[in-house]
Each structure stands twice: as C-alpha cells, then as structure tokens.
Amino acid sequence: MTDRAYELLERVASLLRAEQRRESGATGLEPVHLQALTYLALANRYSDTPQSVGEYLGLTKGNMSQRLLWLERHGYLKRSRDESDGRVVHLRLTDRARDALASLSPPRLWREAAGDTVRLGEELDGLLGRLLARGGYRAFGQCRTCRHHERVNGSPYCALIQVSLDPEQVDRLCREHEEPLPAA
Amino acid sequence: MTDRAYELLERVASLLRAEQRRESGATGLEPVHLQALTYLALANRYSDTPQSVGEYLGLTKGNMSQRLLWLERHGYLKRSRDESDGRVVHLRLTDRARDALASLSPPRLWREAAGDTVRLGEELDGLLGRLLARGGYRAFGQCRTCRHHERVNGSPYCALIQVSLDPEQVDRLCREHEEPLPAA
DNA sequence: ATCATGTAGTATCGTAGCGATACTAAATAT
DNA sequence: ATATTTAGTATCGCTACGATACTACATGAT
C-alpha cells in the first residue's frame, strides 16, 4: 500500500493548479506567479528577494528571477536595490498584485468547496515542518517565533542582524528564521 | 486572513514537485508522468484510457495524450486498442513503470519525513470529495463503493455497463463511479 | 441506408515553466 | 590587492500545457 495521503495531496494539488489556470484566464498569471506573490505579501523586508522566493518554493534562483521579471514587466511588482548591499533586490507588490491575489489566490473552487480547513491546516503545518527540517530547507517562520527575536526597551529586535524591527514586521516571514532552542 | 491551509497545500506541493524532479534525475520522468502512472496502477479496465487520466488530474486530453505517448516511447506503458470500440485505447503499466513508481513515487523526502499521515489522509479525502462534487469532476471511486455495483450469483456485477467483474477489479478506480443514493 | 452528431484520440502550434550553465557585479575573506 | 563568495541575470534546451484542428469510430435520426 503506497501512501494514500501522498496520492491525495498530489491529485488535489493538480486539480487546483488546473483550476487556477482556467480562472486566471487572460491575465497570463500562472500558478507559480500567484505563489510568488503570496509569499511576497507575507515576507518581511529582509526576505523580499528573488533568492528567498526561490528557496520558499524549492525552485532555482535562475528560474525565479525570470518569473519575477515577468511579474515586474506586467505591473505586479516594483523592484528596488538594497541601499546597503548593491547586490540584493527588494520586491514590492503593487495594488494590481494585491487585487490579483484577492480574486485568484485561493481559486473560486476552493472558496466554494473547501469548507472548514482548520484541522487540515494543522496537519499540513506539521507535515511541512517535518519536510523542511529533513530536507534542509529554510523554515520561513515569523520573526516573533524566532530564536533571534528579542525585546530591547520594549520594542522588537533581531539579534541576528542586530537591528530593531518595526512592530508590523514581527508577524512576517523571514528567511533567517530559526526555531527557539529547546529549554534545557 | 487568506486561507492558511490553501497556502500550506500549495507550498508543500511545490516543494514535493521540485524534490521529485531532482530525484527523477536522468530518467526524464516529470511529476505529471508519475501521477499518470500512479493513477493507471489503480484504474480498472474500463478506466485505463487517456481520457480518464486527464479527467483524473484535471488536464486536457490533448496534453495527456502527448504525455502518454512519451511514456510509451520510453517503455513505461503498453497501448492496446479496445476490442469492441475501435476508438478507445487501453494503457498498461510495464515492469519498468512499476519499478519507477516504487522508487520515485512518494519521493524519498516524503518517506523519510512524512511520518503518520492517517489523519492528513482523512482530511484530504474529505476536501477532495468536496472539490470534486462542487467542480463537477468525476470522483473515480472504487467499484465496490459504487451505486451501480451489485452481486449476481455471488460475483460482482456492474449494473451500468452490465458486465460481471473480476473480483480484483472491484477495488480499482472507475471513471463511472457514482456515490450510492442516500437511503430513503 | 444516409447523414448528422457525438466521442476517443492524435498532431501541431504558441506560450511558458524549469534546471543547467555561464556570466556580471558587489561584498567579504585572506 | 587578490581570491572567493554571494545576489542576481541571460541564455539554452527541454518539456508542460491549452487551444485548435484533425481523423476515425460510434451512435442516433430520419
């Protein structure tokens, strides 16, 4: 008996991808575009880069770079150079991107039929954590659950890159995220 | 708050697809190939056709036809014409295909890290059922859970196409599957 | 019987996803 | 100062995918 959950996951994913293609219609937005935008909508200001998007989805940076260039050319992203490191590029969603996510990102079929997904979310969350840990992937957790997250004078502070954080950043995803060390 | 379960599902699927690509290596087997083979390994003898595979995954028949031709050219499938209907083609896995599934289909990462997936399987099963019903897809259930499944002289019989079935066929997937009518 | 309609499958085209490789430029280490 | 690393891009080859058009067979209507 092969793993039933795996087969179901693959089939559901395949059906949803196909559904998304159909719903995206003339926009030209492919599933991978929407996934990239979804990530960028959640990423903090140190993780809104081509590299990070690729790591998040398990795709190569060369591939992601091309997807992101397409998104910029079509008005879904703004690019900007990092001020202190001339190599890195930051990606910002446009309103057009937010509109696209709002109307396409969980495809209509999901919204109509998925129902209560709390329990499913918990199961997927656990599975993802195990896959990431075992596969050597970055976890991309929220700052406030990170080993390096501290409070200095009452305001959030990242001990890794040693900067204080805007309060709104601490709920966003960070590519440097690490689980807290288990209490001894 | 967008649907967390949906995001997790998409990301897990993306990571697993990428993982599968890497593990498939020089075989040239893409995720869609393995999904098609997985389906065909489970399909009954009335549902092992290009059309059915496409419906199962939500892809067009033209696309599937090309994928399946590739699989045949590379020795993963045998094709044969139906005896009573000259239009339909039946697809049979070769040993090479079974070997490929055995070594690649849940990718190594899944096998090593997925852990207990019983509960996840149940959740995905429920979700899939709702998506299929709402989206107008075929369910592809097992014969023995079908509305048209009967027993004649103790052996399984399909009341839809009006043939008796090999006992081994009743655990396989059928594209004509329909839920039993609710008892009145 | 003929003809229209429907269905299973294939061929072809255009677009895009994807990894691999090679490259540039900026940062960092020695 | 030089070597090495890192973020990102450009290009190539291959394949996935939908759309469209086509063939062959089956079925239904008259």
Which labels suit this protein?
7 helices, mainly alpha, DNA-binding, Arc Repressor Mutant, subunit A, 184 residues
What's the SSE blueprint?
Two copies of one chain form a homodimer.
Chain A (H helix, E strand, L loop, with lengths): L3 H21 L6 H12 L7 H8 L3 H13 L3 E5 L7 E5 L1 H10 L3 H6 L4 H18 L13 E4 L2 E4 L4 E2 L20
Antiparallel strand pairs in A: 1-2, 3-4, 4-5
Helix pairs in contact in A: 2-3, 2-5, 3-4
Chain A binds a DNA duplex (30 and 30 nucleotides) through α1 and α4.
User: Structural class from helices and strands of chain A?
Assistant: mainly alpha
Specify which chain pair forms the largest interface: A-B, 54 and 54 residues
What low-confidence regions of chain A span 5 or more consecutive residues with pLDDT below 50? Answer: none
Give the CATH architecture of the domain at 4-115 in chain A.
Orthogonal Bundle
CATH homologous superfamily identity of the domain at 4-115 in chain A? Winged helix-like DNA-binding domain superfamily/Winged helix DNA-binding domain
Number of helices of chain A: 7
Mean pLDDT of chain A: 93
The oligomeric state is homodimer
Write down how many β-strands of chain A occur, each being a DSSP E stretch of 2 or more residues: 5
Sheet bearing the most strands of chain A, described?
3 strands, antiparallel
Give, in spatial order, the strands making up the sheet with the most strands of chain A. Answer: 3-4-5
Calculate Rg of chain A over CA atoms: 18 Å
Write down the CATH topology of the domain at 4-115 in chain A: Arc Repressor Mutant, subunit A
Order of helices and strands of chain A: HHHHEEHHHEEE
